[in-house]
Amino acid sequence: MFTVTYAQLNLWLTAFLWPFTRILALVAVAPVLGHRSVPTRVKIGIAAFITLIVAPTLDPMPQVTAFSAEGVWILVNQFLIGAALGFTMQIVFAVVTAAGDMMGLGMGLGFASFFDPQANTSTPALSSWLNMMAMLAFLVFDGHLQMIAALVETFHSVPVSANVLSGNGYRLIAGWGATVFSGGLLLSLPVVVAVLITNISLGILNRAAPQIGIFQIGFALTMLVGLLLIQMMMPNLIPYFARLFDSGIDQMGRVAAGLRPGP
Known about the structure:
- By secondary structure, the protein is mainly α.
- The chain has one domain.
- Helix content is about 75%, strand content about 5%.
- It contains eight helices and two strands.
- It has a two-stranded antiparallel ribbon with strand order 1-2.
- The protein is elongated, with a radius of gyration of 24 Å.
- The mean pLDDT is about 85.
């Protein structure tokens, strides 16, 4: 007769539950996989499938009862680690959104907006388009697989334990947030500069020949210049996205190392 002791049941439960929590937290927060259009059941199924593959390869779990106070604390730790890593990758897509906001504002497309279900608010049309391009590039470059591989690697760099996580990882995330402004400005700089030069030229022309009616052609001209610059940027846009994704994956490793509990 097949019998299972409480110790064996607890061992099997913890071997699956704690890795599943870390993986599910990343899937729920990470870009593409955590999008609101992806059903919750699909997210749970993806996390469970990855856990079934990864769990047998991990080091032995702490000898702690799953639903004890220490076991719940370990559960919270795993959730915080997964959410921190997923948020790190979300910052990469925030760079693209910020660039779209800057370009759209200069081109006069700031008023053209769509409802973004991910942010649960209206976002400029240009930002939505760039974000969609970044998501497609992310899938083409297997960014989702690289992200999952980086997460699995964190189980070796930050083993499952009840130790208090270090705050260095959160400081790294805060510093990484500056990329939203620097990377977004770098991506939007050609369009912003071109539109600025166009507006300065229109201002000089308006002073020289007021009868032309600059206000009637200015909006269309700045939009045309911005769209032409975006078209010229397209060959270099995808390689720039690839560098952003690589930086995000590397930053995930640094954040995980920063979260490692001290001795």
